[in-house]
């Protein structure tokens, strides 16, 4: 066992310097991600007892993200990518501070906090995606995302449990608001540490300055369809657990415990899958994630109880990392092909990809709001998730077409050696 651990550490050290720095930066920042994803939504629920406000908060976040992606493209010509990446991490703490300073959680205040959080995610993900694309290749991306998912899931065991019970214990003294303020302060400290690690990297800005295009190769539009389908459920993956648990279970401690149950198994599974799979396995991993999320949604819709929530969370702990583990390498492989084919900056595709996600997010969140206003919050929580989960199953066939065409594109782009000399055969295969 010890020898196996040493071998895995040696494998990590064999990766490039920037690979290691980016992984460690994301590891540190991942400590605050459960707080941002789960407990901010729980705070809105506790303070307003209105799931619709949670969705409004999420919609303003999703509106801020593409705006900041676009702004980030211009700022990259004036600031280093490390500065903008760090700014994104720091803004998450600022957004939480704004939220905690509100005396009344009205839609305006929630919207402002949501837009700042959206800017945080925009700067963070725009630069993180570019750096991940730049420092990895098609052969080690499964390992990169498997490693990240392993750390994220381990942290998801500890952080939600500790913070959930910390808030609940403080609530017993009648000062839950102070508990959230303390958590916010800790978040800000962690973002500073992550920024310090980020600045140790030798990261370079995109070389091609133009990043806004309105026409792309037909292959790219297939990926945009996949992005839209992903966006359909993305909002629910973030806010649904908090809303369901606060409504059906009712305590932050239970929220933290539910997030932690089964996460160790999920973490080990994701690392093993990432370490031992190759590009040819991505469709199977993606399909498994889609199926698990659909099962989770159906269980929640049928039971709609505390038991249903726990089962929903258990399936979600496996579904979300499986989807990410396959999706990002598929996305990056398409960008690798098209940057060479169309001679454009990688960031042009990263920016345009966000538009596809945004359309899906608006559709998914809009489905929830329509059901909540026209029928009831219970109907929305039970059936909106089921609806978008079933629709997202179509992603499997879209991804299958993308992977199939990617193989053809790679073969056509592979260099053909001269066969004039006897015995020299032109190689045909996949480029890295």
From TrEMBL:
Pfam name, any one: MFS_1
Domain of life according to the entry: Bacteria
Keywords: Membrane, Transmembrane, Transmembrane helix
Keyword RNA-binding: no
InterPro entries in the record: MFS, MFS_trans_sf
GO MF entries: transmembrane transporter activity
TM ranges: 21-44, 56-76, 83-102, 108-126, 147-167, 179-199, 231-249, 255-274, 283-303, 309-334, 355-373, 379-399
Name of this protein: MFS transporter
């Amino acid at each position: 066992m010890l020898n196996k651990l040493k071998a895995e550490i040696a494998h990590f050290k064999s990766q490039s310097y920037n690979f290691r720095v980016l992984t460690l930066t994301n590891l540190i920042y991942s400590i605050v991600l459960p707080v941002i994803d789960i407990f901010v939504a729980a705070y809105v629920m506790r303070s307003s007892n209105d799931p619709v406000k949670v969705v409004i908060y999420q919609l303003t976040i999703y509106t801020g993200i593409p705006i900041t992606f676009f702004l980030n493209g211009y700022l990259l010509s004036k600031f280093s990518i490390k500065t903008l990446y760090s700014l994104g991490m720091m803004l998450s703490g600022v957004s939480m501070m704004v939220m905690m300073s509100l005396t009344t959680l009205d839609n305006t205040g929630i919207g402002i906090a949501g837009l700042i959080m959206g800017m945080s995610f925009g700067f963070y993900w725009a630069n993180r995606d570019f750096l991940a694309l730049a420092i990895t290749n098609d052969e080690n991306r499964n390992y990169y995302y498997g490693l990240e998912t392993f750390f994220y899931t381990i942290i998801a065991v500890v952080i939600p449990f500790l913070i959930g019970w910390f808030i609940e214990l403080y609530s017993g003294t009648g000062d839950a608001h102070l508990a959230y303020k303390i958590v916010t302060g800790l978040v800000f400290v962690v973002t500073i540490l992550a920024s310090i690690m980020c600045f140790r990297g030798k990261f370079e800005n995109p070389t091609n300055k133009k990043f806004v295009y309105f026409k792309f190769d037909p292959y790219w539009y297939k990926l945009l369809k996949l992005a839209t389908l992903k966006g359909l459920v993305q909002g629910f993956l973030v806010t649904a657990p908090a809303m369901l648990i606060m409504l059906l279970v009712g305590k932050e401690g239970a929220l933290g415990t539910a997030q932690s149950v089964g996460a160790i198994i999920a973490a080990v599974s994701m690392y093993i899958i990432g370490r031992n799979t190759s590009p040819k396995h991505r469709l199977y991993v993606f399909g498994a994630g889609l199926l698990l999320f659909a099962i989770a949604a159906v269980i929640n819709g049928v039971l709609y109880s505390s038991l249903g929530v726990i089962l929903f969370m258990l399936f979600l702990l496996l579904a979300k990392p499986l989807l990410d583990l396959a999706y990002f390498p598929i996305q990056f492989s398409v960008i690798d092909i098209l940057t060479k084919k169309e001679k454009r900056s990688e960031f042009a595709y990263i920016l345009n990809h966000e538009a596809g996600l945004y359309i899906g997010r608006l559709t998914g969140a809009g489905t929830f709001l329509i059901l909540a206003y026209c029928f009831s919050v219970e109907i929305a929580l039970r059936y909106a998730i089921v609806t978008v989960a079933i629709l997202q199953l179509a992603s499997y066939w879209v991804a299958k077409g993308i992977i199939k065409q990617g193989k053809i594109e790679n073969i056509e782009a592979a260099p053909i050696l001269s066969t004039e000399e006897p015995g020299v055969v032109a190689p045909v295969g996949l480029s890295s």
